[in-house]
Design goal:
The protein is of the alpha+beta class. The chain has helices spanning about 1-20, 25-35, and strands at about 40-45, 50-60, 65-70, 75-80, 95, 100-105, 115-125, 125-135, 135-145. The chain starts with a helix and ends in a 6-residue tail after the last strand.
């Protein structure tokens, strides 16, 4: 009987360790966007009119910072996009298990920034697909594909 109790306690301890080491869904999302330190992504937008717009390159960091770049056609390099008054792309947030905010817009009346949220439709190590949300109406699709650094 004592052996059976020890076996139960050992099994419960093992189950506890397995579940405590399991990565949470928000940690998985953060790892998909930012990796160990940061990741760069090509961003392509498809709007509600089904028009396809090549967008920018975004770099997401683990601490919530983000930098936006634009591909300079003449130099073939990434140029940093300066921060503007209307858009504040300096931070990204995980709202919950399936919603993130990767950009925000300034309200000209109040002066505060409103987070634009996107629902995560799919994510892996090389692709993230987001769908914009606006007051429960889904609009626009943003596709992030992994940016490959050119080899020198």
């Amino acid at each position: 009987m004592k052996i059976l109790n020890n076996l139960k306690i050992s099994l419960l301890f093992l189950v506890f360790i397995v579940f405590s080491c399991k990565e949470s869904k928000q940690d998985k999302i953060q790892s998909a966007f930012a990796g160990d330190n940061s990741k760069k992504w090509y961003c392509y937008s498809i709007d509600e009119d089904h028009s396809f717009y090549p967008y920018r390159v975004k770099e997401f960091f683990k601490d919530g910072r983000q930098i936006q770049y634009i591909n300079n056609y003449t130099t073939k390099n990434l140029d940093t996009i300066p921060r503007s008054d209307i858009y504040n792309p300096e931070k990204w947030f995980i709202i919950n298990d399936s919603v993130v905010s990767i950009d925000s817009e300034r309200n000209p009346v109040s002066g505060s920034y409103h987070k634009n949220t996107s629902k995560i439709l799919y994510y892996s190590k090389d692709t993230i697909i987001l769908q914009g949300t606006k007051r429960s109406n889904y609009e626009g699709v943003l596709t992030l594909t992994r940016y490959k650094e050119k080899e020198q």
